[in-house]
Amino acid sequence: MNLPRLLATACCLALLPLAVASPSHASGGPAAPDRPLRQLAADDHLRIGTAVDVSALTDDTDYRRLTGSEFSTVTPENVMKWESLEPRQGEYDWAAADRLVDFAHRHGQKVRGHVLVWHNQLPSWLTAGDLDAGRLRAALHRHITDTVRHFKGRIWQWDVVNEAFNEDGTLRDSIWLRTLGPGYIADAFRWAHEADPHALLFYNDYNTEWTGPKSDAVYDLVRSLRAAGVPVDGVGFQGHLSIRYDLPTGMADNFARFDRLGLATAVTEADVRMPVPADSGRLATQAEGYRRLLDACLRTRRCISFTVWGFTDRYSWVPDTFPGEGAANLFDEDYRPKPAYRALQSELAGRARSEAAG
Ligand code: XIL
Fold first, then answer.
1. Residue 317 in contact with ligand 1 by CB distance below 6 A
2. What residues are labeled active site?
3. Is residue 356 part of a domain?
4. Residue span of the structural domain in which 24 resides
5. Closest ligand 1 atom number to CA of residue 206
6. Helices in 107-236 by DSSP H: which ranges?
7. Residues 109-163: pLDDT tens digits?
8. Residue 227: inside a domain
9. Residues 206-234: pLDDT tens digits?
10. What is the Å distance from ligand 1's center to 269 Cα?
């Protein structure tokens, strides 16, 4: 184990509560987990994370306690997106994102910054503005520079570019591609690196966990960016699965080819949704989906973090986005741990990844 990793582990274990309060104490649910995920993951040299809903973090004490006790990294679910940070042109609102970064600091957690360049959740002044290429490029440069500088030194990994590809491996027809051409991707990484040279810069996407045209396209992209000296450090695999489809296989082999490029990897947004209502068979399949994602990460030398996209069904994006599906998270709506939580616990406990990553 290298020294920085040793210090990071020691620092964070020291901040952990001695025993985890029962997540379901208030609701009278099953007994507490023995050891929180973050402790088990530390033994495997892995950071385990969750996306955080900052309103819930403020208003819901059970949510706040579990966010702090179970996870060693956090991702803002929405509050670092462009529409949240700059709802009116030139007027930044950092308050909610700063609250989360402060929370993380107090709890010995690292932060995944999410997200600098995406086609969704953009402010309307930008999308409706009909900016020509010169102005749009300047706006993107300013957004990346101001945002990365604001959080400089406090963000571990940035999702610099998110979801740039279609399923067939062609580039997505977004405002960025249409107006700026494919060079926007390399520009974004260069600008982010100038603003915080120590942050790890990631390309992030979904349906890229297995091999196929889309993950091949991501592979070709990051390989050519590296060859051109563009500062890309890692690839994020979102990990949004549904039990309506066969659970993916071959993920570790896919992650391995990125590893061989010398890149860090991460599972960045894991959840496994199902048709609702949940039943024991569906929950077992879901647990296997989570287990496979974590297994692929643990088998990959430089897979440095495993993040779930929210940890409780109480605040999940799934029912609003995928009608008829839900129950996608590790804890149910009353904070009772589900089989998927137990599967991650035992997967982490049963492994001893000796290699220090990241
Ligand atoms: C989702 C959030 O979870 C929702 O609350 C929001 O309404 C839409 O965005 N891929 C991503 C995330 O990279 O930013 C998305 O988050 C989920 C899909």
1. yes
2. 163, 269
3. no
4. 3-349
5. 10
6. 124-127, 133-150, 175-180, 184-195, 213-227
7. 999 999 999 999 999 999 997 899 999 999 999 999 999 999 999 999 999 999 9
8. yes
9. 999 999 999 999 999 999 999 999 999 99
10. 9
